Amino acid sequence: MFERFTRGARATVKGAVAQAERAGAASVTEEHLLLALLEQDGSRASFALASLGLPRRRASLEAAFTEARRRGGLTRADTEALAEIGIDIGAVVSRVEGAHGEGALAAGRTGRRWWSGHRPFTPGARTILEKSLRIALGRGDRSIGEEHLLLALTATPGTTADVLAEHGATYAAVHRALYGPEADGRGHAKAG
């Protein structure tokens, strides 16, 4: 599949690995893919991200990811659903961190180097890569670009899509930013 990636999409994937290394993460996550996209310039995805104001809100995005990791990766929807049955995730996190230290629920964050010299992609990150292929094929595109990665990040339920939505980057908003308000699901102009 990687051979179908554009130069920019390959740079994004490599950038995600670098993001994971800088963070001391044991593996490459969806978050790292998004942060790598935020560092790309001159692509359709970078223009869409800029039009939604995400590069200037990077610190807010990173804070939201940090908070999600503290919750053990639970999405806001998960947290709200548990609250409805009387489970206060904030209280659970506080008790666990009180007993085991700050960030105890943030799995996958270690400073260890892997013997192989590379970090694996999490199942969620692999899902994003696979979904980007399906999005590209569904649009009739021959290769996978950064825009397909960005759409996949917004279309795949989970913490990254939640954080993006909280910052105004829903699938619909990103699609409009990429292809304009009159585009259908494949990016073609709607018949009037």
Provide key terms for this protein:
Clp_N_dom_sf; globular; single chain; 192 residues; Double Clp-N motif; mainly alpha; Clp protease N-terminal domain-containing protein; 0% strand; 10 helices; hydrolase; peptidase activity
Q: How would you characterize the overall build of this protein?
A:
This protein has one domain (2-179): Orthogonal Bundle (Double Clp-N motif). The chain is 58% helix and 0% strand. It is built from ten helices and no strands.
Provide the gyration radius in Å.
18 Å
* Main beta sheet strand tally, sense and closure: none
> How large a portion of the residues is in β-strands, by DSSP E?
under 5%
Q: By helix and strand content, what is the structural category?
A: mainly alpha
Pattern of helices and strands: HHHHHHHHHH
CATH superfamily: Clp, N-terminal domain
Average predicted local confidence, pLDDT? 84
DSSP E strands, number:
0
Uncertain spans: 108-116
Give the % helix: 55-70%
Oligomer: single chain
Number of helices: 10
Summed up:
The protein is mostly helical and 192 residues long. It is built from ten helices and no strands.
Topology summary:
Elements (H helix, E strand, L loop, with lengths): L6 H17 L6 H10 L4 H8 L6 H13 L5 H9 L4 H12 L22 H16 L7 H10 L3 H8 L4 H9 L13
Helix pairs in contact: 1-2, 2-8, 3-8, 4-9, 7-8, 8-10
